[in-house]
TrEMBL record:
Any one GO BP annotation for this protein: regulation of apoptotic process
Name by which UniProt lists this protein: F-box only protein 11
One GO molecular-function entry: zinc ion binding
UniProt lineage: Eukaryota, Metazoa, Ecdysozoa, Arthropoda, Hexapoda
Domain of life: Eukaryota
SMART domains xref list: CASH, FBOX, PbH1, ZnF_UBR1
Zinc-finger found in the keyword field: yes
Gene of this entry: LOC113207531
UniProt keywords, alphabetically: Metal-binding, Repeat, Ubl conjugation pathway, Zinc, Zinc-finger
Pathway(s) served: Protein modification; protein ubiquitination
UBR-type domain residues: 855-926
Region Disordered, annotated ranges: 1-41, 62-114
Organism (species): Frankliniella occidentalis (Western flower thrips)
InterPro entries in UniProt: Beta_helix, Carb-bd_sugar_hydrolysis-dom, F-box-like_dom_sf, F-box_dom, FBXO11_UBR-box, Para_beta_helix_rpt-2, PbH1, Pectin_lyas_fold
Amino acid sequence: MPSASCTPSRSYVRRSRRKGVNRVPVPPRTSAGPAGSSAGAAAAAATSAAAAAGSGVVFVVSSGSSSTSGTPDPPGTASGASIPGNVIHHPPYDLRRKSPPHNDGGPSTSSVAVSCTTSQSMACSASGTPSTSPTMFFNATDNASMVPARKRPRRTQSVSSVERESQNSTFAAQYLLHDLPDEVILLVFSYLMEKDLCRVSQVCRRFRSIANDVELWKKLYQSLYEYDVPLFNPEPCRFEFENVSDCEHANPWKESFQQLYRGVHVRQGYQDLKFEGRKVPFFNTIQAALDYADEKGQSLHTDAGDGALIFIHSGTYTGEFLVIDCDVSLIGAAPGNVAESVILDRESESTIMFVEGAKQAYLGHVTLKFSPDVGSTTPHHKHYALEIGENCSPTIDHCIIRSSSVVGSTVCVSGMGANPTIRHCDISDCENVGLYVTDYAQGLYEDNEISRNALAGIWVKNCASPIMRRNHIHHGRDVGVFTFDNGMGYFESCDIHNNRIAGFEVKAGANPTVVNCEIHHGQTGGIYVHENGLGQFLDNKIHSNNFAGVWITSNSNPTIRRNEIYDGQQGGVYIFGEGRGLIEHNDIHGNALAGIQIRTSSDPIVRHNVIHDGQHGGIYVHEKGRGLVEENEVHSNSLAGVWITTGSTPILRRNRIHSGKQVGVYFYDNGHGRLEDNEIFNHMYSGVQIRTGSNPIIRGNKIWGGQNGGVLVYNGGLGLLEQNEIFDNAMAGVWIKTESNPTLKLNKIFDGRDGGICVFSGGKGVLEGNDIFRNAQAGVLISTGSHPILRRNRIFDGQAAGVEITNTATATLEYNEIFNNRFGGLCLASGVHPLLKENRIFSNQDAIEKAVTDGQCLYKISSYTSFPMHDFYRCQTCNTTDRNAICVNCIKVCHAGHTVEFIRHDRFFCDCGAGTLNNQCQLQGEPTQDTDTLYDSAAPVGSHTLMVN
């Protein structure tokens, strides 16, 4: 704004010079130029109104409205009015005084120039020429200081006309600065543009308050930038929209104006328009704006070193070949969804390229499209919507990026030193790969939407190593993320789901790190690592995939650690085809098939996992699978906790396998391996089952709480059971049957709710050096054609017999100690002739013989829970059968005088004492319900575990 000028008296000038007083420079009086707009007329009207009211002060501002033909006033010219030479001016500070100033009768010596001042006097000059620094220009508005009142000269005479003029001037100033309605001033100011509005705000405090009106600046802001909310530039390469209600600035629109005012605008149809009070360059094309920015160079940069700023307004920009090789910021400008309104489209070559030199370039809030002609013969496999080359690091922000090319990718970042920041972008609905990072490129990729692409959402290859955080990668028609050919990268907190193939694929030496991601609802699997793939998958949620949550094959060796892998429509982790890997500290549950499946010579390390509540089994090792499985907790699965079959040889150490709905560990069809130092307990079936040629080593385990026994070896099963603790099982601690031939050495088999070891149905085996004690039934029961070898065992403190051999069975007993058993030491049924050598049988209680001697019914001491061995008979008079055994004392007392028949010396309980015969037992008293069918040392149940290929 031009300074308000005045003509001082000669005496005033002489006196000032004589006294050497520092004065504010007063520009020479100039004549007014033509009014350039209605704003100039409005300002002139305000000036005239103030003069008509008798004011001695005139405030003049320059025009601020746009015009297609008008031109700005020349420097030093006040638009709309001229300044009379006989007006006495008072500085604004004096005009705001509560009392009128003293009048000595002489001419006033007070004078002021209304101007913008800063410490360097750079914000705006008295001629109205704008500063080259927008920041200084806007700061001057808020920090301008008023010129202090000058010291008044001594009163030399009293002049009444001067006194009256001074009073009129005071009254006019009072009206203008205090009584003129704010609405009138606001209306006048609404015709001004930003630069003149800043100048008038320096006139006085009232003007400054009104000139900072939020709605006034909002209107100005939206006329230039078109945004619905203010945009801020808090740091290089960062532009953020902020709601007015959340903004800490008193006037967010004005603050944003200040930060963005250096910008150049691309707005079609505006290039030839002139705006008084605004010096903003407009261009019709982006390339023209880039050329202008390159020509101006540092003059368009901020003090912080930001490059040129180019606003691209609403419209579709086609055919421009844009190569960015400098630090320039290009940002869309439009109301509503900005990016949807600003479209850069190209049919040949890449839509926009960033190359070496673009270290702090920025592209934001635009749509990039690559739309090649389908009939073109030009190959487009190296053309992209966005291409970022070597040695540059632009920021791409809030862009929509599309490509209809069926080859290549939509975004390509390649080359050493390529290190962009791509965030909040939408890379979707493309007919190829979404984002491709290759050839040692890096970069930061955050909060992007990558979806519905025809090929992979992301490719990473050739030693590229991007950092990708919080990206949403979904509904792709291929894999979600594909790393291959030694690609790397760090993927954190990404949501990857509903892709047609795997959510994440790793191949051919690739080694990504995937952390805190959610990989789910894949139409095949979650993670697929193959062909020597590596990678670290840490703390992810992998769930609800149609196939396995994690696939590892063909010599791949990833780390799968601290993930939650659950609710898969097949298995949790599937390792096959010589796969390896470290599977550690994962929570694997609720999968339709095995939690972990190992097959075809695969050899992973599986440890510290919790594998539970599967709809199938826990761990399934088959087809020559191997692996080290240690310190896992496997529980509450519907089928076996661990299956080992078809030539597999895993090592299981220090696992807790429990509470399953079938078997704990199941070896079948030549399943082998080692089972060492595990805790196996509380299964509905046996803790361990071995069958059909399986030959595992089972050493140092604790096996207890099985509802169908501790260990069941059947159908030709083998195995070495050594130094195990087998206790508190509902049936026998160890069952051996149907031609099975295991070796049991140095085990402790105790506190069973049935017998210790039960060998029957042609079972064999070598039982050597075992301690068998405190079992409810016989320590060792040998029956039905079996022939085991018992050597150096200690069988003691049993609640029934030590060793019982019955039903055509035989055995070899050498060097055993059998003592302190309730029903006797060695009990042999009729026709049994074992091989005995140097056994010590001593201190047994012989409770059966004592009961017989005392005339007691044997049922009194055995009830239906055990089967003591003694003579039993049948009564022909009572028409009993061989199934109805009668003890010798009941024959003597209850069936005295009847025709009776001796059957054999064998295991039974007395049916007469049990009350199952027609005559009441005279030795027992009240009859007892026949429970012969409830418990008869029932044979164990083989597993019904399903076979899965």
